[in-house]
Amino acid sequence: FGYVFNTGPEAEFFLFKRDANGRPTTITHDHGSYFDLLPIDLGEKVREEIVTTLKEMGFEIETSHHEVAEGQHEIDFRYSDALRTADNVITFKLVTKTIALKYGLHATFMPKPVYGINGSGMHTHLSLFKGDENIFYDKNGKYELSKEALYFIGGILKHAKGICFIANPLINSYKRIVPGYEAPVYISWALRNRSALIRVPSANGKYRRIEFRSPDPSCNPYLAFSVILAAGIDGIRNNIDPGEPTNIDIYNLSDDERKKRGIDSLPGSLMEAKEEFLKDKVLIDSLSEHIIEKFIEAKNEEWDSFRTHITNWELDRFLEIY
After folding, report:
1. Which of 121, 133, 157, 270 minimizes the number of CB atoms within 10 Å of its CB?
2. Cα–Cα–Cα angle for 239, 226, 145, rounded to 5 degrees
């Protein structure tokens, strides 16, 4: 097709205190919330130094702010082609962790480190360019989206379950993808509805894009962008219609209402996602056999370790009763 695949991730992270031995805890550094400022947002100076350092390294920083949960933050840098963006994600995470350590804190990109509050996602903005032309924009198209954009959405929706195995690669990832915490659970798209898996931000012209909301910052961005692109291109090749946007809060729909609308759910666990990935030839063909073999081997080992480990939840719930 001759397209350039541009991606713009929003990687959220937590700042936690360290204990007397320097080990990370899950005690948040502050009690701030969305867009709070000093003195409530105690992470502002840490973010400021992260931003300054990244700028000195050539990053174009667009926003920096406190996120919804206590101790949760977001720093967004300008989109670029997928390979450069993947490099930037790795650099960004290393810089963030290093500077947090300088302040005696631990920065984590773990998707759901604390029960009962929002987890950390990596909402990723996507677009296709040919030269200076944004292929996703059509001023005369439905919703000002081109047919290619709609088909790209359709492809991602079709392959969304399998994509999760790569873009949400931890057992912990699926504790974020639950109702009630602003994370996508249902496979649908919308114009400005944040309960949908894919959202279309209100931007026109060269900035027209889609936002894929399920990935989290624990993923390998090189692999994640590869399978996302493969799914989208499959949509374009096969004219996959995404259907009409769902512009209501999907969390408020009953199971029967979602079923009538044809809205399916993302996998509920890493192993469910693995099974979906293994059924998806388009995604499998987008990665090398060696990468898939080693990735599955690592995830199976992780799952077996988790499955046989005795957790505090089990002890709290069962030890006294039984």
Report:
1. 133
2. 40
Pairwise CA distance, residues 62 & 321, whole Å: 53
Query: For the segment 43-61, what is each residue's pLDDT rounded down to a tens digit?
Result: 899 999 999 999 999 999 9
264: which strand partners? 187
According to DSSP, the residues that pair with 274 across neighbouring strands are none
Say if 121 falls within a structural domain.
no
Task: Say yes or no to pLDDT of 168 above 90.
Answer: yes
For the chain, what is the total number of helices (H) and then of strands (E)? 9, 12
86 shares its domain with 148? no
Predicted confidence (pLDDT) per residue in 9-22, tens digit = 999 999 999 999 99
CA distance 235 to 43: 41
Alpha-carbon distance values, 193 to 121, 161, 213 (Å): 16, 20, 11
Query: What pLDDT does 33 receive?
Result: 82
Question: Are both 194 and 287 inside the same structural domain?
Answer: yes
Task: Please check whether residues 70 and 148 belong to one and the same domain.
Answer: no
Both 81 and 190 in one domain: the answer is no
Domain that holds residue 98: 1-109
Handedness of CA 187, 119, 56, 23 (dihedral sign): negative
Give the CA angle between residues 117, 121, 123 to the nearest 5°: 140
The pair of three-digit structure tokens given for residue 172, joined into one six-digit string = 């912990």
pLDDT of residue 38: 76
Return the higher-pLDDT residue of 179 and 164.
Answer: 164
Give the pLDDT score at 146.
96
As a whole number of angstroms, the distance between CA 43 and CA 73 comes to 8
Count of structural domains within the chain: 2
Task: Sort strands 186-190 and 4-18 into parallel, antiparallel or unpaired.
Answer: unpaired
> Are 202 and 192 spatial neighbours (Cβ–Cβ below 8 Å)?
yes
